[in-house]
Every structure is written in structure tokens, then in C-alpha cells.
Amino acid sequence: MAFNAISTGSAPKRAIDGALSLLRFALGALCVAGASSPLSAAAAEPTLLPNERAFAFSARGVDERTVEARFVIADGYYLYRDRLKFAIEPGTLGAASLPPGKVKEDQFFGKVETYRNQLIVKLPLDAAAPGRSVTVSAESQGCADLGVCYPPQVQKVTLSLPSAGGRPGMPVEAAPQKKSWLN
Question: What does the domain layout of the chain look like in residue ranges?
């Protein structure tokens, strides 16, 4: 009659010590390999903002003949001066006077003028439109300092112009920040 060996559930001490040493070595090797892996490099790379957050557009009616267009440009981003175009519906705009930008030697477009931080432009209407609702369109293009350029984009806002002698309106954002229950 043959008997099978009965295990007490405990491995010999030498086997446990060897397994723990092997496990420590493997974990150490994974940590070293992980520090130089493409996955950890990707996690360390900064993420780019969506176009409408990098170049946040808003506008407001200043009076019955003037709209103020504004771009808030995120840190590390810039807008091209010669890539800005404005339009209004219904109606037409007079000549907008853009402030001078900072001259930059750009890797994509050569010598250009750019804006950083904030840009405010007064847009004159060809005809007064007191109390009228208008849609302001802004076409723009910009880049991140990381060397990534965004495609041209059009942002639109609809606002009411003040009545004759009325107070300026509040800014209307093209892409308002979403409210969060956690903030």
C-alpha cells in the first residue's frame, strides 16, 4: 500500500528566501525600465489645451456702433496677427485697428507679429444698430511654444448692442467654462 506525502502547507525556508529575492530583483528591474520607457515619457509630456481654451474668444457691445473683441491667450501660447479676421452679421464692419504685435522669427511662417496673454480689438460697425442682436465671428490661428500649431478656427458669439447712450454690455464667451460640482 502506497501513501502520498502530506504537505504541512509550509515551504522550506530556503525556497521562500529565494523567491523573495527573485521578486525584489524583478520589481527593481521593472522600476528602472519603467523610468525610461515611452509610457513614462508620454506621461511626463505636457498636454496641449483645446483650441478654444488656448485662445479664448469673447466679445461685448460697447455702444450702438462698436463691438469689443477679446482673446485671452493661455500661457505658453501665441496668436498670429496676420491670421486674425473679424466679421459681423447682420451688417458690416469698418476697418479694425489691430495693435502692433511682438515680432518673432517663426519656424513655420518666418518673420511674423504675434500676441501673447491678451488681445483687445475695437470693431467699428459701418452703421449704428442700437439694441440689435448681432453675431461676431473671429477667425484666428495660433501655436503653442512646444512647436505645435493649431489649424485656423472660427469662434462666434451672439450679443446685443446697447441702445443709444446705454451702458456697455457684458462680455459673451464663445466657449464658456463648464461648471463643475466639485469646484
Answer: 15-43, 51-173
Q: What percent of the chain has pLDDT over 70?
A: 72
Burial 75-111 (b: 16+ CB within 10 A, else e): eebbbbbeebebebeeeeeeeeeeeebeebeeeeeee
pLDDT at 177: 63
Residue 81 near residue 101, CB atoms below 8 Å: yes
Q: What global pTM score does this model have?
A: 0.71
Closest to 119 measured CA to CA, from 56, 64, 63, 167: 56
CATH of 51-173, one of 3.40.50.11540, 3.40.50.150, 3.40.50.920, 2.60.40.1250: 2.60.40.1250
Amino acid identity at 61: G
24 has pLDDT over 70? no
E strands, the chain, in order? 55-63, 66-73, 77-80, 85-89, 102-106, 110-115, 118-124, 133-140, 142-144, 153-160, 172-173
Phi then psi for residue 143, to 5 deg, are -140, 165
